[in-house]
Amino acid sequence: MDNNGKNSESKSRPGRFKAAFLPWLRTMSCSFVAATLGIMITFGSNAVLNRKKQEKTEQTIKKMALKHICKSLRQLSGNARSLTEADSVFRYFNRLYPDSVAYADTTMANKFCQHISDFNFHISDNTVEKIFSSTGNTWEMVGDEEFLDFAGPAFNVINHMDAIVEQNSKQRFELYKDICCSDEMRSISSNREFAETMIRRKEVREFIMDNTMHTLFLDGAVKELQRLADDYMRKHGITEADLFENPDSIGHTVKADANFK
User: Fold this and answer.
1) Can you list the residues of the chain whose pLDDT is less than 50?
2) How confident is the model at residue 247, as a pLDDT?
3) Upper half-sphere CA count for residue 85 (Cβ side, 13 Å)
4) 8 Å CB contact between 199 and 94
5) Between the CA of residue 261 and those of 11, 109, 110, what are the distances in Å?
6) How many CB atoms lie under 10 A from the CB of residue 25?
7) Are 199 and 101 in contact (CB under 8 A)?
8) Residue 249 φ/ψ, nearest 5 degrees
């Protein structure tokens, strides 16, 4: 073979190699790009899904807390109204003591018997609060600082108000039990006599002072906390209908019959 043949063959080899390599290179490039895009899409999708999952979890946590707060406020608002009504009757008899109790209005005497024997056994569902207090991770899932600043103190205030209602009920129960178990009860034949006997007891008058303070605090605290809850929910476009379907509270009241014919 002459030199011209060798040169021609040597020049054609790179062309044949390039022609054979290009399809493989194109295939590898497409595969690489596809794999890269697949990885990006997978991680991107996971990031989006995780973000959506986190947002959904945060909304669920906020909904649970708001539902608990609204339900508690509804129940405590009823307690505040009951205490306010009782307080006006109790203070009426306190003003008559000691000289004019025997001349008390019959209707007010009937109301006194009704309220002093009104044992509001406060049933609080603190399941939601236990979820929040048992682990810090629950609060960490919520990134809404405005909500955290509202919900945390709200739980504390609600607990304090629950304790006041429970203490008030226990005081009424003890006072009513003591008078019912006393010898004085045998000679009582009317609501007026019952109210007069009760108001002459020092511990009853002390309870009335406590009841007035409890009433003022409970009424003010409920209204202020309700205002804060309404402001937050209004700002974020949340209604109580969004939180729960059944608007009824879970309060349970047991009343003893203290009326005398």
Assistant:
1) 17, 25, 33, 43, 45, 47-48, 246-257, 261
2) 46
3) 14
4) yes
5) 127, 12, 11
6) 11
7) yes
8) -80, 170
